[in-house]
Amino acid sequence: MPIGGDVYMLNCRARVVWLCLLLGVYWDAPTASLAQAVPGLDEQRTLAERGDADAQFTLGAMYSRGQGGVVQDAATATHWFRLAADQGHEQAQLTLGVHYLTGNGVPQDPTEAVRLFRLAGEQGNVFAQNNLGVVYQGVPEPFRTEKDVPIDHAESVRWFRRAADQGHAVSAMNLAVKYRRGDGVAQDYTQAFVWFLRSAELGDVNARREVGGMYAAGQGVAQNDIEAYMWLDLAVLQASGEDREMLLIDREAVAERMTGEQIAEAQRRVNVWTPSTR
User: Fold this and answer.
1) Residue 39: pLDDT band by 50, 70, 90 thresholds?
2) H-only helix segments in the chain
3) Where do the domains of the chain lie, and which CATH numbers do they carry?
4) pLDDT higher than threshold 90 for residue 16
Protein backbone atom coordinates (compact mmCIF):
# COMPACT_ATOMS: atom_id res chain seq x y z
CA MET A 1 0.00 0.00 0.00
CA PRO A 2 1.58 3.30 -1.05
CA ILE A 3 2.39 6.07 1.41
CA GLY A 4 0.23 9.18 1.48
CA GLY A 5 -3.23 10.61 1.84
CA ASP A 6 -5.98 8.62 3.53
CA VAL A 7 -4.74 5.22 2.40
CA TYR A 8 -3.92 4.41 6.01
CA MET A 9 -7.54 4.49 7.15
CA LEU A 10 -7.91 1.40 9.33
CA ASN A 11 -11.55 0.76 8.48
CA CYS A 12 -11.49 -2.98 7.83
CA ARG A 13 -8.25 -3.75 9.60
CA ALA A 14 -9.42 -2.18 12.87
CA ARG A 15 -12.66 -4.16 12.73
CA VAL A 16 -10.79 -7.41 12.13
CA VAL A 17 -8.40 -6.73 15.00
CA TRP A 18 -11.33 -6.10 17.31
CA LEU A 19 -13.17 -9.21 16.16
CA CYS A 20 -10.20 -11.42 16.93
CA LEU A 21 -9.97 -9.93 20.40
CA LEU A 22 -13.68 -10.22 20.99
CA LEU A 23 -13.66 -13.92 20.25
CA GLY A 24 -10.49 -14.67 22.16
CA VAL A 25 -9.80 -12.13 24.83
CA TYR A 26 -11.94 -13.72 27.49
CA TRP A 27 -9.69 -16.76 27.39
CA ASP A 28 -6.74 -14.85 28.78
CA ALA A 29 -7.82 -15.27 32.41
CA PRO A 30 -9.24 -18.82 32.20
CA THR A 31 -6.16 -20.11 30.42
CA ALA A 32 -3.91 -18.61 33.07
CA SER A 33 -5.97 -20.01 35.92
CA LEU A 34 -6.15 -23.50 34.44
CA ALA A 35 -2.40 -23.51 33.92
CA GLN A 36 -1.75 -22.76 37.56
CA ALA A 37 -2.28 -24.98 40.60
CA VAL A 38 -6.07 -24.87 40.90
CA PRO A 39 -8.30 -27.39 42.68
CA GLY A 40 -9.28 -30.50 40.72
CA LEU A 41 -12.61 -30.82 38.95
CA ASP A 42 -14.49 -32.24 41.94
CA GLU A 43 -13.12 -29.62 44.31
CA GLN A 44 -13.79 -26.87 41.79
CA ARG A 45 -17.36 -28.04 41.35
CA THR A 46 -17.88 -28.19 45.12
CA LEU A 47 -16.63 -24.63 45.50
CA ALA A 48 -18.78 -23.50 42.58
CA GLU A 49 -21.91 -25.13 44.00
CA ARG A 50 -21.23 -23.36 47.29
CA GLY A 51 -21.34 -20.05 45.44
CA ASP A 52 -17.67 -19.26 44.90
CA ALA A 53 -17.69 -16.91 41.88
CA ASP A 54 -14.07 -17.58 40.91
CA ALA A 55 -14.71 -21.33 40.94
CA GLN A 56 -17.89 -20.86 38.89
CA PHE A 57 -15.95 -18.85 36.33
CA THR A 58 -13.11 -21.38 36.15
CA LEU A 59 -15.57 -24.27 35.86
CA GLY A 60 -17.29 -22.42 33.03
CA ALA A 61 -13.92 -22.02 31.33
CA MET A 62 -13.25 -25.75 31.70
CA TYR A 63 -16.53 -26.65 30.01
CA SER A 64 -16.12 -24.01 27.33
CA ARG A 65 -12.68 -25.32 26.39
CA GLY A 66 -13.27 -28.99 27.13
CA GLN A 67 -10.35 -29.06 29.54
CA GLY A 68 -9.74 -30.16 33.11
CA GLY A 69 -11.50 -33.51 32.73
CA VAL A 70 -14.79 -32.37 31.20
CA VAL A 71 -16.32 -32.63 27.74
CA GLN A 72 -16.74 -29.33 25.91
CA ASP A 73 -20.28 -28.08 26.48
CA ALA A 74 -21.21 -24.47 25.67
CA ALA A 75 -24.56 -24.62 27.46
CA THR A 76 -23.02 -25.88 30.70
CA ALA A 77 -20.22 -23.34 30.39
CA THR A 78 -22.81 -20.60 30.01
CA HIS A 79 -24.64 -21.83 33.11
CA TRP A 80 -21.54 -21.42 35.27
CA PHE A 81 -20.54 -18.13 33.68
CA ARG A 82 -24.03 -16.79 34.41
CA LEU A 83 -23.86 -17.75 38.09
CA ALA A 84 -20.52 -15.96 38.42
CA ALA A 85 -21.72 -12.96 36.41
CA ASP A 86 -24.78 -12.59 38.63
CA GLN A 87 -22.38 -12.17 41.55
CA GLY A 88 -20.57 -9.33 39.79
CA HIS A 89 -17.59 -11.32 38.47
CA GLU A 90 -16.37 -9.00 35.70
CA GLN A 91 -14.59 -11.65 33.61
CA ALA A 92 -17.71 -13.80 33.72
CA GLN A 93 -19.82 -10.81 32.67
CA LEU A 94 -17.46 -10.17 29.76
CA THR A 95 -17.44 -13.83 28.73
CA LEU A 96 -21.18 -14.26 29.02
CA GLY A 97 -21.60 -11.11 26.95
CA VAL A 98 -19.53 -12.67 24.19
CA HIS A 99 -21.69 -15.80 24.37
CA TYR A 100 -24.83 -13.71 23.88
CA LEU A 101 -23.31 -11.71 21.04
CA THR A 102 -22.21 -14.84 19.18
CA GLY A 103 -25.06 -17.16 20.17
CA ASN A 104 -22.70 -19.62 21.86
CA GLY A 105 -24.69 -21.77 24.30
CA VAL A 106 -27.54 -19.22 24.44
CA PRO A 107 -29.89 -17.59 21.93
CA GLN A 108 -28.11 -14.72 20.20
CA ASP A 109 -29.03 -11.43 21.87
CA PRO A 110 -26.86 -8.34 21.23
CA THR A 111 -28.88 -6.27 23.70
CA GLU A 112 -28.12 -8.69 26.53
CA ALA A 113 -24.49 -8.76 25.39
CA VAL A 114 -24.31 -4.98 25.75
CA ARG A 115 -25.90 -5.14 29.20
CA LEU A 116 -23.24 -7.60 30.35
CA PHE A 117 -20.39 -5.74 28.68
CA ARG A 118 -21.58 -2.59 30.41
CA LEU A 119 -21.58 -4.29 33.82
CA ALA A 120 -17.99 -5.40 33.28
CA GLY A 121 -17.03 -2.10 31.70
CA GLU A 122 -18.31 -0.11 34.65
CA GLN A 123 -15.96 -2.18 36.81
CA GLY A 124 -13.07 -1.02 34.63
CA ASN A 125 -12.67 -4.07 32.39
CA VAL A 126 -10.92 -2.70 29.30
CA PHE A 127 -11.93 -5.61 27.06
CA ALA A 128 -15.60 -5.07 27.83
CA GLN A 129 -15.16 -1.34 27.29
CA ASN A 130 -13.56 -1.95 23.90
CA ASN A 131 -16.31 -4.40 22.94
CA LEU A 132 -18.93 -1.78 23.82
CA GLY A 133 -17.11 0.73 21.65
CA VAL A 134 -17.30 -1.55 18.64
CA VAL A 135 -20.85 -2.80 19.21
CA TYR A 136 -22.10 0.79 19.40
CA GLN A 137 -20.50 1.56 16.04
CA GLY A 138 -22.28 -1.44 14.53
CA VAL A 139 -22.44 -5.13 15.44
CA PRO A 140 -19.98 -7.02 13.19
CA GLU A 141 -21.70 -8.59 10.20
CA PRO A 142 -21.37 -12.26 11.25
CA PHE A 143 -23.32 -11.52 14.44
CA ARG A 144 -26.02 -9.14 13.23
CA THR A 145 -29.63 -9.93 14.12
CA GLU A 146 -33.01 -8.23 13.95
CA LYS A 147 -32.41 -7.10 17.55
CA ASP A 148 -29.17 -5.26 16.88
CA VAL A 149 -28.12 -2.44 19.18
CA PRO A 150 -28.76 1.02 17.63
CA ILE A 151 -25.60 2.66 16.33
CA ASP A 152 -24.37 5.44 18.62
CA HIS A 153 -20.97 6.78 17.60
CA ALA A 154 -20.72 9.17 20.55
CA GLU A 155 -21.26 6.28 22.96
CA SER A 156 -18.75 4.24 20.98
CA VAL A 157 -16.16 6.99 21.41
CA ARG A 158 -16.89 7.22 25.13
CA TRP A 159 -16.16 3.54 25.73
CA PHE A 160 -13.10 3.45 23.50
CA ARG A 161 -11.75 6.43 25.42
CA ARG A 162 -12.34 4.79 28.80
CA ALA A 163 -10.33 1.74 27.76
CA ALA A 164 -7.67 3.78 25.94
CA ASP A 165 -7.16 5.93 29.03
CA GLN A 166 -6.28 2.73 30.89
CA GLY A 167 -3.62 1.82 28.36
CA HIS A 168 -5.55 -0.62 26.16
CA ALA A 169 -3.72 -0.52 22.82
CA VAL A 170 -6.54 -1.65 20.53
CA SER A 171 -8.99 0.81 22.09
CA ALA A 172 -6.49 3.62 21.57
CA MET A 173 -6.24 2.61 17.92
CA ASN A 174 -10.03 2.42 17.58
CA LEU A 175 -10.35 5.88 19.14
CA ALA A 176 -7.78 7.18 16.66
CA VAL A 177 -9.86 5.79 13.79
CA LYS A 178 -12.90 7.63 15.19
CA TYR A 179 -11.00 10.91 15.18
CA ARG A 180 -9.70 10.36 11.67
CA ARG A 181 -13.13 9.52 10.29
CA GLY A 182 -15.05 12.04 12.39
CA ASP A 183 -17.40 9.39 13.81
CA GLY A 184 -18.88 10.53 17.11
CA VAL A 185 -16.32 13.34 17.38
CA ALA A 186 -15.23 16.24 15.21
CA GLN A 187 -12.73 15.04 12.62
CA ASP A 188 -9.29 15.83 14.00
CA TYR A 189 -6.15 14.40 12.43
CA THR A 190 -3.98 15.71 15.25
CA GLN A 191 -5.99 13.81 17.84
CA ALA A 192 -6.00 10.78 15.54
CA PHE A 193 -2.21 10.89 15.51
CA VAL A 194 -2.06 11.27 19.30
CA TRP A 195 -4.08 8.09 19.82
CA PHE A 196 -2.38 6.10 17.07
CA LEU A 197 0.93 7.02 18.71
CA ARG A 198 -0.35 5.94 22.12
CA SER A 199 -1.40 2.59 20.66
CA ALA A 200 1.89 2.22 18.78
CA GLU A 201 3.88 2.89 21.93
CA LEU A 202 1.87 0.17 23.65
CA GLY A 203 2.93 -2.29 20.97
CA ASP A 204 0.10 -2.46 18.43
CA VAL A 205 1.61 -3.30 15.04
CA ASN A 206 -1.25 -1.78 13.04
CA ALA A 207 -0.97 1.48 14.96
CA ARG A 208 2.76 1.54 14.29
CA ARG A 209 2.04 1.38 10.60
CA GLU A 210 -0.48 4.18 10.96
CA VAL A 211 2.01 6.38 12.82
CA GLY A 212 4.63 5.72 10.16
CA GLY A 213 2.18 6.61 7.41
CA MET A 214 1.06 9.81 9.12
CA TYR A 215 4.65 10.94 9.66
CA ALA A 216 5.39 10.18 6.00
CA ALA A 217 2.37 12.14 4.78
CA GLY A 218 2.54 14.91 7.37
CA GLN A 219 -1.03 14.15 8.40
CA GLY A 220 -1.85 15.30 11.93
CA VAL A 221 1.85 15.79 12.67
CA ALA A 222 4.81 17.54 11.07
CA GLN A 223 6.19 15.51 8.16
CA ASN A 224 9.26 13.55 9.27
CA ASP A 225 10.75 10.76 7.19
CA ILE A 226 13.13 9.64 9.94
CA GLU A 227 10.24 9.05 12.34
CA ALA A 228 8.19 7.50 9.54
CA TYR A 229 10.96 5.01 8.75
CA MET A 230 11.48 4.24 12.44
CA TRP A 231 7.83 3.37 13.10
CA LEU A 232 7.45 1.40 9.89
CA ASP A 233 10.62 -0.53 10.72
CA LEU A 234 9.32 -1.28 14.22
CA ALA A 235 6.15 -2.60 12.58
CA VAL A 236 8.20 -4.72 10.16
CA LEU A 237 10.06 -6.29 13.07
CA GLN A 238 6.74 -7.23 14.68
CA ALA A 239 4.82 -8.42 11.62
CA SER A 240 4.94 -11.63 9.61
CA GLY A 241 3.73 -13.05 6.33
CA GLU A 242 1.84 -10.84 3.90
CA ASP A 243 1.51 -8.02 6.42
CA ARG A 244 5.28 -7.87 6.75
CA GLU A 245 5.71 -7.76 2.98
CA MET A 246 3.31 -4.82 2.73
CA LEU A 247 5.13 -3.01 5.52
CA LEU A 248 8.46 -3.52 3.77
CA ILE A 249 7.01 -1.87 0.67
CA ASP A 250 5.81 1.08 2.75
CA ARG A 251 9.15 1.42 4.51
CA GLU A 252 11.10 1.32 1.26
CA ALA A 253 8.81 3.96 -0.26
CA VAL A 254 9.93 6.28 2.53
CA ALA A 255 13.57 5.18 2.28
CA GLU A 256 13.70 6.13 -1.41
CA ARG A 257 13.47 9.82 -0.51
CA MET A 258 15.90 9.66 2.44
CA THR A 259 19.65 10.11 2.58
CA GLY A 260 21.93 7.41 3.93
CA GLU A 261 22.50 9.49 7.05
CA GLN A 262 18.76 9.82 7.66
CA ILE A 263 18.23 6.07 7.30
CA ALA A 264 21.10 5.41 9.70
CA GLU A 265 19.54 7.78 12.24
CA ALA A 266 16.15 6.08 11.86
CA GLN A 267 17.77 2.69 12.42
CA ARG A 268 19.59 4.02 15.48
CA ARG A 269 16.26 5.16 16.93
CA VAL A 270 14.81 1.72 16.31
CA ASN A 271 17.69 0.11 18.19
CA VAL A 272 17.27 2.32 21.27
CA TRP A 273 13.47 2.43 21.28
CA THR A 274 11.73 0.95 24.30
CA PRO A 275 7.99 0.24 24.63
CA SER A 276 5.65 2.24 26.81
CA THR A 277 3.97 0.59 29.78
CA ARG A 278 1.08 3.05 29.82
Assistant:
1) low
2) 11-24, 28-35, 41-49, 53-65, 74-86, 90-102, 110-122, 126-135, 153-164, 169-181, 189-201, 205-217, 225-238, 241-255, 260-272
3) 11-37+88-272 (1.25.40.10)
4) no
